[in-house]
Sequence to fold (109 residues):
Amino acid sequence: MSKKEKALKIIKIIYLLLIIIFLVSFVFIIRYKWGVFLAIVGFISIIVLYFVIHFIHKKIYNYTCPSCHQSFQIDIFKDITSYNVGSNAKILICPYCKTKEVMKASLKQ
Ligand SMILES: [Zn+2]
Fold:
């Protein structure tokens, strides 16, 4: 596993932890005033991390078209909106031959 992949994994773990903290903080909102602050900070951090994860993912992975074997990069918007298949594959349209297929992500060289 490369350094960048490791970094992405760590960020994803932090992201999941933040979501858990965010959900738990709702209990505190009801009981304590500072729970609102915690929830706002948590919510902003989750959104920021969400974009960071997609940005890193887009930067370190390439997709290869199974029909014309060209590899290509997708933009952050496509990375967020495209349909995920399994852990590291997406349904994408090849920019070269326009085939709509399940494409596996591979690390950039
Ligand atoms: Zn293609």
About this structure: The chain has a mean pLDDT of 88. Residues 3-107 form one domain.
